[in-house]
Amino acid sequence: MKWSAEGPSRTTRTPAHNIVVPSTATDFPPDSSSSQLFGLLISESIKNKIISFTNQRLEMTREKYKRRNKPELKNIDALELDAFIGLLIFSAVFKSNDEDINALFATDGTGRDIFRAVMSKERFAMILLSLRFDDASTRDQRKQTDVATAIADIFSEFIANCQKYYKIGETTTIDEMLVSFR
């Protein structure tokens, strides 16, 4: 490789193997909301599986309580799952993803108000504890063939959605470094 203070010569033609041609990307309306675009990657099918498996776990947890109608033990629905995912993203964006739940929900002015506005601390903790991505009753037999069986089905669907809707470009940054590719 030869480094130069001047740019490349424009008198010679760029070799074809050095030209990156972007693949055709799915066109989205310019007024698409971020939640609509996020919904392409985390599809309704993925959400429904998470809701179903999480509700199975919540049902098992409810059996351990005398008072089974506590608000934090109720089944999760699509709206609440979206809210929960939103809080997790919010905590990551503001670098609070390693904070204690008590600190996030603190009422002394140090906590984040949005957490308390969306759901109670007890409900957040219960969803976090009960969140499941597969059917636990069949996990043992599936684990014999796939060590990542707890997330494999949803993960493969997520990867398929990423490949379908996200097209990598020539200026993509991966983990804060540029990786050359053709």
Automatic annotation (TrEMBL):
Xref: Pfam families: DDE_Tnp_1_7
Ranges that cross the membrane: none
Domain PiggyBac transposable element-derived protein: 34-182
Composition bias type Polar residues, residue spans: 9-31
InterPro entries associated with the record: PGBD (IPR029526)
Organism: Euphydryas editha (Edith's checkerspot)
Protein name: PiggyBac transposable element-derived protein domain-containing protein
Annotated segments matching region Disordered: 1-31
